Amino acid sequence: MANAAFVEMNITTKEGYKKLYPDGNVKFPIRYAHPNCGPANKACMDSPGNSDLSERDVQRMADYARWVGNPTRSEFQVSQQEVIRGEQIFKQVKCDTCHVTKKIEIADPHDTMLSQFFRDRLVTRTKQGGKPFLSYIGTDLLMHDMGYLSQVGDAKESEVKECKESIRENDGVVKEKCRNFVQKIRTPPLKGLRFNRFVTDSYKNAKEPTKDNPACDFLLHDGRACDAIEAAFLHDGPAIRKLGTIEELNKLTGEMIRALRAFLYSL
């Protein structure tokens, strides 16, 4: 959990670092005493980072992640024509390439984070011929270069000549000598998206939220997107360009956009 906090959210813990590396000899990168922003971002490298996370905080985060529920989709919502149409559009624009929604079969009920009671239920169902599965998780769990969203430093003042004009080739792929300017981002799961604004209380940030003017969800890694549709249009990077996702999104009509939003907020 501490490693995930560091790699994916730039959250570090001083205590863990001191315990594992009292002599400063780092053998295995598990806890860190410096921010994770890449040597290209000097201002970030010179800062102490979020290094006030305690070991107890790490344990609490791990406990929460271990036991957090896996929300079931609303049968009422998934039967709505707008939601069904939205899922078709989701696949049409190739969002499911990274935000995978395919069924994932549970091969071994005991190899899960479930309590013994629910493991036993899965075993019984499997013996009866059933095939337990997870679905609509909405992530491939991989790290991706998200273009300008992944850039962690200004290359204009770089000492590397190839990076001053652009850190990327024409196809969007980062140049070999400019990799320090990019930090990849893991595909976040979409499952449970419909609960996001209530869990975070973000619905309170609009005085009079309406269907056409909802509260801001603060999505993406830095909260710059107000809802899932805006987050979709802000995607960037070589994979997105190759898939042509933004071009396909731009072709959608207002009705299709509303259907796509309905599907995303049914997860």
Would you summarize the structure shown here?
It is built from 13 helices and four strands. It is mostly helical and 267 residues long.
Instruction: Enumerate how many helices there are, as a single number.
Output: 13
What strand order characterises the main sheet? 1-2
**Radius of gyration, rounded?**
21 Å
What's the total count of β strands? 4
Task: Give the count of structural domains.
Answer: 4
- Extract low-pLDDT stretches: none
User: What is the CATH topology assignment of the largest domain?
Assistant: Cytochrome Bc1 Complex, Chain D, domain 2
Main beta-sheet strand count, sense and barrel state: 2 strands, antiparallel
Please state the overall shape, judged from the principal axes of the Cα atoms: globular
Strand composition percent: under 5%
The averaged pLDDT comes out at: 80
**Corresponding CATH architecture of the largest domain:** Orthogonal Bundle
CATH top level assignment of the largest domain: Mainly Alpha
Which structural class do you get from the secondary structure elements?
mainly alpha
Alpha-carbon distance between the two ends: 25 Å
Q: Can you characterise this structure?
A:
The protein has 13 helices and four strands. It is an all-alpha fold. The protein has four domains: 2-67, no CATH class; 75-101 and 136-146 and 184-267, Cytochrome Bc1 Complex, Chain D, domain 2; 105-134, no CATH class; 154-180, no CATH class. α6 (81-92) crosses α13 (254-264). It is globular and about 60 Å long.
